[in-house]
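Researcher: Good morning. I'm working through a list of sequences from a screen, and I'd like to move beyond sequence-only analysis. For each chain I'm collecting a predicted structure so we can compare shapes side by side. This is the next one on the list. No need for commentary yet; just the structure.
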Amino acid sequence: MKRTMSWIVVGGAMLGLAGAACAAEGYVLQAGHPSLSAWRLPARPPAPDDNKWSEPKAELGKKLFFDPRLSGTGQVTCASCHMPERGWEDGLPTAVRFGGQVMPVAAPTLVNVGYNSIFMWDGRVPSLEKQAFAGQGKPADLNAMSTVEPEVAIARLNGVKGYRAAFEAAFPGEGLTRETVAKAIASFERTIVSNDSPFDRWVRGDASAMSAQQVRGFGIFVGKGNCASCHDAPNFTDNGFHNIGLKSYADANHPRGRFAQRPLKLMDGAFKTPTLRDIALRAPYFHDGSAKTLMEVVEHYDRGGDVKTNLSPEMHPLQLSAQEKEDLVQFLLALTSPHKPFVYPVLAAD
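Model: Good morning. Structure tokens for this chain:
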């Protein structure tokens, strides 16, 4: 790609950046510049033709997301692992199922999940609807510690008058089934959106939304830091799979990621690229929860990873200076939107 002169506005002065410091290979680091338009998220995540988004579906899905009656034990909800107050994760290094079973990977965030095109750390699910449907089955999360068939939970919900009415309003004539439960939950998950961060406001033209240091950090993110090669526009993910050389990959018992679905050498130890939106709310980091801070994340990439076996071609030592690392961390902090306190739903009454 031809290297062009880019510009950054600092303290009202426009300064040129060229050569290795050229921020963005085509991005102009000026608030609201048209070259940044790729980073603008669509106002609402897309929905499939057989489950077009509606308010009644989303409101119903919100109740189901927090209702333990959907689980085999009657004690587990989707929110058991995806808590709104913890960035729609659980705040643990790796997930812990009901009953204390420690999982080998972290609970993935649901922030902006509706913009994704493939789901789960290993990409085994192609849609939100299929993920919500599979979650009801054995040995899936909602039934993992139960011998109860998922149909029993559906029958339990069918006994709730409030749910029968809500399903008829959201899915006229379709009834209360595992399929409509999945569609409702997926519709709610498409409302979990982060798109008003300081970075988003800066992209839209608010020059005061990010500090000069954060703007420099964005230049590193899309330039020398090579972060945007995987954390791509507009949702800071390429929906791809990469082995980033975590120490846990050397553990013979560690899951092999995408390799389980696509048995190719490059996919061994490769896990899905997570979005970085609302990242400040979501420590610890990486699929194994091994990084406690964003600086630890930056240091890992600066080293080019730890385990070099089967490393992604995108991974290499970055040789960032101490200042560049600080700038990059400050930019990452600019990716979190302000959110109103989440109001838990009142569940449908018996």
